[in-house]
User: Fold Peptide hydrolase from Ephemerocybe angulata.
Amino acid sequence: MQYLAYLVTILAASALAKAQDRKPLVTPEALEDLINRESLLAHAHKLLEFSELSNNNRAFGSKGHNATIHYIKSLLDETGYYDTEFESFTYSYSEAKATFTANGQEFFTRGLGYSPSGDVTAPVVVVNELGCNPSDFPAEVKGKIALILRGTCDLGLKVAHAGAAGAVGSIIYNNVDAEPISGTLGSPSRPQGPYVPSAYISGLNGKAFIASINAGTEVVANIRVTSLVEDRVTSNVIATTKQGDKNSIIAAGAHSDSVPAGPGLNDDGSGTIGILEVALQLSKFSVDNAVRFHWWTAEEFGLIGSEYHVQHLSDEARQTIALYLNFDMIASPNGGIFVFDGDGGATGIPGPPGSDAIESVYRSYFDSHDIKTGSAVFGGSSDYQPFVDIGIPSGGLNTGASGTKTAEGAEWWGGKAGVAYDVCYHQRCDVIENLNVDLLERNSKAIGHSIAVFGRSIEGIPRTRREPVQTLRVSQLSYEERLHLTCDHDDERI
Assistant:
């Protein structure tokens, strides 16, 4: 009986291999035609449903995120077309929720990761300079709340100095007028001093408090923080076509996690479902070059998943990757269409040699549809960066994040000038209604187009030797610096 079962398995595998061989070779037109908004939106509804399992987010290691990655893998396994795997590891998760009032009025604040929980009320004292040295903290800060300007050193060092000076709380105010997008103290503790409950406010409000204090008006603030810090096991999802040249792998990726503040349907649910639908439809074709899809975890905590993957590639495996394509936010509600500037002509920061050929594929595609394209810079703020660091030609698309659409952008793509590309960026309102479905469908078709082009040929892509992983730039950064890399977002230009 065991032999019979073995024989059945062998015959089934042989039949599957023959069926795969009979599939037509993929063409850009054929793959693009199979991508439609109905299927994309069906995936989007599933991601929103998963977010409801963990307080309306899909932050890495949460129930919502775990459901997301199992959904992706199960759909791909059903095709029989891919070798799939979870690439798992442990990383420290931190989340802090804060409220802040001053003289009885509530102000917008961001919680700072690793800030301790607490509820403190005290007068506010302005700190000298930037709070990067113990001498910046005057004696009167003891028993008070320290008001500190962002800049130069880690936020965590500023708060540790505040704790060492005897402050009962701290307020970091932004070094620009705008509200901060996110922040962290960078590590669970520091030797310079104990952390105190902390809030993170806009530069405009911070300067207003200073003006009041300098005019002789006391500012009494209340900071309430609820904090969570824990180690979480999390996973990248990796799917590689069973056929195609494994020495010329076409790699593509999007991040599967959201920020804790919201479900992340655009950031980066849009990229996640875009490459998922392309992967599902690709299974109907054969390819000359192997294609590998990645869904990265913990991007929102500093490109953690993609860096882990690249760091753990063997020397042999690094050499097999022909190019990498990244898709992080492709459906911004007031979005544009930005192609990564492979040759550096628009931004002055080229990708590795061969990135210009990737850029050309996308420019030509949108030109053929009479759609203008802007340029995205390789600024380090998404999962392409570890691949760039080891010299792999890279490219991709995005539609903009917190940046503001220009008048020329509104003329090119519609929408509103002077308004952010995504007003719900990193917020609870990043739900299905936040998606620009036209952009989602068009960019997903463009992804399919590029996968088909490179799945057939890598002409124009040099096959130079990949650098060793110790050259990864992200691994040299502090936790806080890594967080500032996450999709906040590459500088988009038109």
Residues 2-22 form the longest helix (21 residues).
